[in-house]
């Protein structure tokens, strides 16, 4: 049976910061951000939006009334939970009017959570072929003003509907995993921002990729020429490029060029959004599908990395006429219609937090799924 991603969509808020403005404010050469990190813009989120509004907004674009009757599981992969106990998935389940006899839960391991969710969805559909699973990878990457990680922030959500006979991509059941207990990025309870050894995380990312790539070649008997494209977790777009180039010595120059061109197509959206932690691999996948001329039957490799560190490499095959099921214009409009904020507006928005004193506060954010009230530390959403 063929199982895979039937539909994919993403959502980012209506605001962004231009990386040149950030560079000037931080007295840094803008080329460091645009070329050194490969980032042009960074998505910004107001306090009236969270991973629930991001995830619901992404999923609402792809779900039909019929899908909502067929979904048995809603899984949210995130490391930006709004609650240590209740999952974002159960609120998204309600906001989207998904049939009540469904499982809803959150899954975590740094930026790897979305992949864990996706693989769990595949297993569920394999056992229940007529049912569907909604996977959401949603995060808000915040390192702090003036921090080393500040230029690698961002936010957003990717939603994927996993079904049998998918319209877009089929799993090839060829996953290779790798775990290594390391402290390159972690956020202990009580910390608003992660603790991060950025240069160590870069190194572990590349080492994990090269190890898993070797293991993949051994187990799945493939070489780079078997993949139409290799896509990567994208904390910033230079990161995946460094990993890709780490395996260039085993390829011809033509092969290097081919994969680097596909890579450039896969980072078009991330250059404008920044880091969405667990969703960033899948924003890269969406960018590749929207911006590359690929053919049905071609295989795409996906490298997922979550600091700490867990990684997975797997591949998916493009389905017949997959191009007909993309929303390219809608995706481009979502990014182009956003408002550019000044540094002062960014810093103010960054500092704003929802109150936690249990009193009642109301908000007026007209966005479809925004928070309109908080009371007793319960968030209420527009619907
Ligand atoms: N023009 C062009 N490139 C420039 C430049 C300039 N003026 N100045 C610096 N650069 C390049 C550097 O050469 C470097 O490129 P390289 O990595 O290919 O060598 C890149 O810009 C980054 O410079 P660096 O000095 O390493 O930046 P940094 O010390 O500020 O750290 C991160 C960068 C990514 C480590 C930091 O932003 C961070 O900690 N981010 C959060 C963690 C993260 O995203 N980890 C990724 C793995 S999950």
From TrEMBL:
EC number of this enzyme: 2.3.3.10
GO molecular function: hydroxymethylglutaryl-CoA synthase activity
InterPro entries given in the database record: HMG_CoA_synt_C_dom, HMG_CoA_synth_N, HMG_CoA_synthase_prok, Thiolase-like
Gene3D superfamilies associated with the record: 3.40.47.10
Record keywords: Acyltransferase, Transferase
Residue ranges occupied by any Hydroxymethylglutaryl-coenzyme A synthase N-terminal domain in the UniProt entry: 3-164
Protein's name according to its UniProt entry: Hydroxymethylglutaryl-CoA synthase
Species in which this protein is naturally found: Enterococcus xiangfangensis
């Amino acid at each position: 049976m063929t199982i895979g991603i039937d539909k994919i969509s993403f959502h980012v808020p209506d605001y962004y910061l231009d990386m040149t403005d950030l560079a000037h404010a931080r007295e840094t050469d803008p080329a460091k951000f645009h070329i050194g990190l490969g980032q042009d813009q960074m998505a910004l989120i107001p306090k009236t939006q969270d991973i629930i509004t991001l995830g619901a907004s992404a999923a609402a674009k792809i779900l039909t009334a019929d899908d909502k009757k067929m979904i048995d599981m809603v899984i949210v992969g995130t490391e930006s939970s709004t609650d240590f106990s209740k999952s974002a998935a159960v609120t998204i389940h309600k906001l989207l009017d998904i049939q009540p006899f469904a499982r809803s839960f959150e899954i975590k391991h740094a930026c790897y959570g979305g992949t864990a969710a996706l693989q769990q969805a595949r297993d569920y559909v394999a056992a229940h072929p007529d049912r569907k699973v909604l996977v959401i990878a949603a995060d808000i990457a915040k390192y702090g003003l003036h921090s080393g990680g500040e230029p690698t922030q961002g936010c957003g959500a990717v939603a994927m509907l996993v079904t049998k006979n998918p319209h877009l991509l089929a799993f090839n059941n060829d996953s290779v995993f790798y775990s290594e207990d390391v402290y390159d990025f972690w956020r202990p309870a009580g910390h608003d921002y992660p603790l991060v050894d950025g240069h160590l995380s870069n190194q572990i990312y590349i080492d994990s990729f090269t190890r898993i790539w070797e293991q993949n070649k051994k187990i799945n008997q493939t070489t780079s020429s078997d993949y139409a494209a290799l896509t990567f977790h994208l904390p910033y777009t230079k990161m995946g490029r460094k990993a890709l180039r780490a395996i260039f010595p085993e390829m011809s120059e033509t092969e290097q060029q081919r994969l680097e061109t596909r890579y450039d197509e896969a980072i078009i959206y991330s250059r404008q959004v920044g880091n969405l932690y667990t969703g960033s691999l899948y924003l890269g996948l969406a960018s590749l599908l929207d911006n590359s001329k690929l053919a049905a039957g071609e295989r795409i490799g996906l490298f997922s990395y979550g600091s700490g560190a867990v990684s997975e490499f797997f591949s998916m095959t493009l389905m017949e006429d997959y191009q007909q099921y993309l929303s390219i214009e809608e995706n481009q409009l979502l990014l182009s219609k956003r408002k550019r904020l000044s540094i002062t507006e960014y810093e103010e928005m960054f500092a704003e937090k929802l109150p936690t004193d249990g009193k009642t506060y109301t908000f007026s954010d007209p966005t479809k799924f925004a928070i309109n009230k908080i009371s007793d530390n319960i968030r209420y959403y527009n619907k």
